[in-house]
Amino acid sequence: MSRNQAWINRDLAVLWHPCTQMKEHEALPPIPIAQGEGAWLVDFDGKRYLDAISSWWVNLFGHANPVINERIKAQLNTLEHVILAGFSHAPVVELAERLVAMSPAPLTRVFFTDNGSSGIEAALKMSFHYWRNIGLPNKTRFIAIEGSYHGETLGALGVGTLAIFSETYAPLIKPALIAPSPDCRQALPDEPCAAVTERALLSLRTLLEHHADEVAALILEPLVQCAAGMRMHEPAYLAGVRALCDEFHIHLIADEIAVGFGRTGTLFACEQADITPDMLCLSKGITGGYLPLCAVLTTETLYQAFYCDAPASRAFLHSHSYTGNPLACVAALATLDLFEQNQVIERNHARSPMIESLLNPLRQHAHLKHVRRRGMIIAMDLCASNGQPFPRSERRGQRAYRHALDAGVLLRPLGDTLYWMPPYILTDSEWQMLAAATLNAVNAATRD
Ligand SMILES: *Cc1c(COP(=O)(O)O)cnc(C)c1O
User: Does 240 share its domain with 172?
Assistant: First the structure.
């Protein structure tokens, strides 16, 4: 028995994997990873996989990064964890200071949680609680955008619209009001995306005209709705939403859990529309993909509505055991150091022409549509030769996934949408390998 097989057998005897129909592992078992090295994952039989999805969008500077490793090791010998209620420590203070310094000026306060979904829960509760504290307790609802994903706890599912995650649990969920998607792929032939943006904003205005009094906040994923299939929209949409939120007195929550930290080409996606949200949620890449951590940044106005001598009910009591964990905080500090020392945003930007040239053959492929890119997020949709989507039951994306795995590249398509969201450390030849493997996978998956 191979070493892989031995681990697979032990895994399948005890584990229940996330986002997985476990029975499908009979046909395609999980891949046991022995080691990570930069952009590569190595299994127990020594086969190497290029991690083109950054291990679920979290890894920015490679696996076993020496800079991050050293910071965590040093912290490990100093303080592994301490309660953050009533106590404090150096890494959490330094991280909060740096996050405030690097985000838009009005964001002055940092609330930590210990994963993305819990950060979303905190942001939603904080918004409702703010309005309640200032005497508007009827603002109890949220607006979400069609195609949104904000995590899978019950509150977060309420502001998500992906049926695959929420439909089953509908009886448990308080649903949000849904505004139409600004996804540029909706543009009619010969129409610019600006027309989609305008229609989406117009519908949002109508929704607000009817419901603003009962709405606490609008939540969105700026520039790219990732889990829905890397749906991209214009910065102008964000600017429009910000103006409407101001006009109708509701908060804007920017969920940059996936798109933050350089993914869209700027440090934060909101920068491209020159807007400041009332709450900015950051996670995933914040620790370079090492440890769970989420930061919710907010304004002094929000913070001050909780700051008083009144009873505990006016304070924000939300808490998680591992809030502000020191090891996670130093991983984040090391990640921020890497950004600064290596001018990552500028260097990623300088790769644009190279990435675009790799996309040319894919743009001409008869079985690909909407080949699109926003910074370091590249996506494309498989289609039949008549341009129509394949029947879902054919699972073409899954076929592409298997072919790419055989070729040593980890793609993990979202349905029939293939995407690249690699660590920022790929060499030119790794980019070329990724493009070539993708082309081969598309060819193999669309052949009949
Ligand atoms: C991943 C993700 C979340 C949830 O984060 P978890 O740490 O997985 O709970 C929320 N919002 C967006 C946009 C995400 O991509």
Answer: yes
Q: For position 291, what pLDDT does the model report?
A: 98
Q: Name which residue sits closest to atom 15 of ligand 1, judged by CA.
A: 258
Does 294 share its domain with 358?
no
Please give the pLDDT value at position 139. 98
Domain boundary, last residue among 322, 342, 362: 342
Whole-angstrom distance, CA of residue 114 vs CA of residue 127: 19
User: Do both 327 and 361 map to the same domain?
Assistant: no
Do 257 and 401 fall within a single domain?
no
Decide: 160 in ligand 1 pocket, CB within 6 A.
no
**CA-to-CA distance for 65 and 231, rounded, in angstroms?**
31
Nearest protein CA to atom 12 of ligand 1, as residue: 150
Q: Please give the C-alpha separations between residue 276 and each of 122, 254, 345, 372, in angstroms, as whole numbers.
A: 18, 9, 20, 26
The preferred substitution site among 59, 149, 377 for testing ligand 1, maximizing ligand atoms within 8 Å of CB, is 149
Establish if 15 belongs to a structural domain: no
| Domain end marker among 294, 312, 342 | 342
- 270 within 8 A of 253, measured Cβ to Cβ: no
Mutate to test the pocket of ligand 1, among 114, 150, 154, 264 (most ligand atoms within 8 A of CB): 150
Q: Is 263 in the pocket of ligand 1 (CB under 6 A)?
A: no
Residue 443: φ, ψ to 5° = -60, -45
Give the separation between CA 196 and CA 181, rounded to whole angstroms.
9
| Neighbouring-strand partners of residue 59 | none
Whether the predicted model's global pTM rises above the 0.90 cut = yes
Identify whether 9 is part of a domain: no
Q: Is residue 156 domain-shared with residue 247, that is, in the same domain?
A: yes
Per-residue pLDDT, 260:
98
CA distance 197 to 244: 13
| Blockwise average pLDDT, block size 10, the chain, 448 residues | 97 97 95 98 98 98 98 98 98 98 98 98 98 98 98 98 95 97 96 98 98 98 98 98 98 99 98 98 98 98 94 90 98 98 98 98 97 98 96 96 98 98 98 98 95
Domain limits for position 405 = 31-64+351-445
Distance, first Cα to last Cα, the chain = 34
Domains in the chain, number: 2
